[in-house]
Amino acid sequence: MLNKAKTVLQTYFGYDHFRDGQEDIIQKVSGGKDTLAIMPTGGGKSLCYQIPAMLFPGITIVISPLISLMKDQVDALEKTGIPSTYINSTLPNGEINERLNDIYNGNYKLVYIAPERLEVPSFLRLLKEIHISLLAIDEAHCISQWGHDFRPSYLQIKNLISQIKPKPVVLALTATATPQVQNDIIELLHIQKEHVVMTGFERENLQFQVVKGEDRDRFLLNYIEKNSGQAGIIYAATRKEVDRIHLLLERKGLPAGKYHAGMSEAERNQQQERFLFDDISIMVATNAFGMGINKSNVRFVIHYQIPRNMESYYQEAGRAGRDGEESACILLFAPQDAQIQSFLIEQSEMDEGRKEHEYSKLRKMVAYGHTESCLQQYILFYFGEEDPPECGKCGNCTDSREHVDVTIDAQKVLSCIRRMNERFGKTMIAKVLTGSADKKIKSVGFDQLTTFGILKERNQKEVSEFIDFLTAEGYLLPTDGQYPVLMLTENAGNVLRGKEPVFRKEKVRIAQLVEDNELFELLRELRREFAEKEKVPPYVIFSDATLREMSAALPRNDNDLLQIKGIGERKLEAYGTDFLSVINAYCEEKDIERKHVPMMKVEKKSVSKSTKDSSHLVTYQMLQDGMEIEEIALEREISERTVESHLIKCDEEGHEIDWDQFIPSQYEEMIEKAVDEAESTRLTPIKELLPDEISFFMIRAFLQKNKEKVTKGEV
Ligand code: ADP
Ligand code: MG
Asked: What kind and span of H or E run contains 486?
């Protein structure tokens, strides 16, 4: 099974290796075990049911809560050559009926549905009449009331499973790892504990950073400017904040959209589409945005405020870098923001025990903002990994900024606040410290304070930032409400009494994520043209990672292209020529000499240059170049039978041939049985035991593939 799984991975998806957990999950599922897969966002859960779907004889039903994204998922699958469709409420009835008919006729391997569909009786009737091999339940935490996104209709799934005969294999998938949610899932779906596969939660390509004590708007603008053109999501805690930040970016002419639950559905969809289609590169949003977002080239996720717990943080931050490219996850941390989250918990309808549970999670989120040790380590530790190592690349691990002693300035600020009786906010305090001529200051007599103008060599903005810094460090405590008043904490008292020094780090340097080269831009342009023509988001055509690899490896032909991550046979066929011609033209123009792209994919024996006279080797080379048997026969003007015998000859001579590509996976078991039963390796008696659609060559390929076993009589 695993060999076949690997073939599907390579030929359809164009990937060389399984990621952590995928192999294990696929093996369990194809062995008929109901499985719970827990992998982080972006870890690659989809392949864990898409590949088995190709290996199983029947249909795979995928239940997913996000109808707005089903179309993209299906488009992406169709592009890799996997027949699939979706059914949801966005489709007109006529279209639904047509699709149901096609499903009934076995035209699809994968069918995506929303859980609500399970409440439609006619649909349930259909499900009972077709052969369902696998039921994949995406975002499976939705089944649990402890999860962060409970969906009552997920509870229908249990009934569904009991009604379909024979029972399909069940695969539940989630990125939520809390024990309570896990338990709910396995109990409700009757999954055995030993069939829970949980991978490491590390995402190697994410670089975490906490930025505190800085002007957040300014940081944001600088960051976006420095990384212009890169896709990013900015999460803010409230709709109002989203509107404000969005306006701020818009005024600066930055290509930003926004998304929150206060907007109409049409507006939200439109904004989301523009983001997915690379029309706008920035999305400012509340946590309402992003569940199931498959956009793979999100390069940064910035949290303007802390979310309510680490689960949400990791899920939202994890939307960066699904394509495996280096990406940044930045938290702009201000301790007072915890108050918004506390407020939301307080206002909720949870019972007291549950609220306490939420508060304690919030405290751990705040502690993340404060920690000075490795951020990734903190996250992995939170998710239950034992002894996670330091990452060496997060903001804390790489922090080499100098500590500057700012005790005296801190004393000036703190004593000024004390003299103002701890009854004012940041702006007013900064004005007094810088000696502002504001009338209001005069009217309350603050111009008479000894601290008036004590920092007049600085501007108001700098002093405000410094006050933010003191707040972040816990010397000041803002009160609740829209115009928080700053109060001194116990630590502030220590500073004022000269018992505690204050150190401040220099400003954070804003890193530039990636430098894209000229060719990458050209390829991106071409990708955009295809995306527009085919009305799909660009990343459905090729991921950024694939384009970047192309622009570095400079493939010269189809064979080279196939070595590149994310290019399977179907995509090669659809786009190969066009992308090659852009690359070739670029290299010609720049006078770049190219080497072969090193073969990484399958260990292929290299074919010597003198193949011209050995006919079967010419055939072999053409096969390696990605041609089908039929095409080779046409091109060489020989019969398909000859091509087939060439391949067998090559195999005998030790040239590696991937026979699986000629054995449709759904037939393999049948062929194996027939070979057994015929007690012979002669083709005709075997063929007689099999349905007509299984060709001689499929049997031949099967025998070649298993030749060692066959000669030992094991098959
Ligand atoms: P999630 O676990 O969040 O559902 P996805 O299934 O959406 O993650 O996968 C995230 C990205 O990783 C996708 O772009 C997918 O094509 C890519 N991916 C998945 N498996 C592999 C693999 N074995 N090698 C390379 N890329 C992969
Ligand atoms: Mg997913």
From this structure: strand 486-488
